[in-house]
Amino acid sequence: MTEQDLISAVIRPEIRALTAYKVADATGYIKLDAMENPYTWPEEIKAEWLNIVHDAAINRYPDPEAKALCRILKEYNQIPAESEILLGNGSDEIIQLLLMALPADATVMAPEPSFVMYKQIAQCLGLNYQGLPLLANNFELDLAVTLATIKSQQPEIIFLAYPNNPTGNLFDSDAIEQIIQHSNGLVILDEAYAPFTDFSFIGKLAQYNNLLVMRTVSKLGLAGLRLGFIAGSPALINELNKARLPYNINILTQCSAEFALSHPELFAEQTQTICLERARVFLQLSTIKGMTPCPSAANFILFRTPKDKATDIFNALKEQGILIKNLSPQQGLLTDCLRVTIGKPEENNAFINALKECI
Ligand SMILES: *Cc1c(COP(=O)(O)O)cnc(C)c1O
Question: Do 120 and 244 sit in the same domain of this protein?
Answer without folding.
Answer: yes
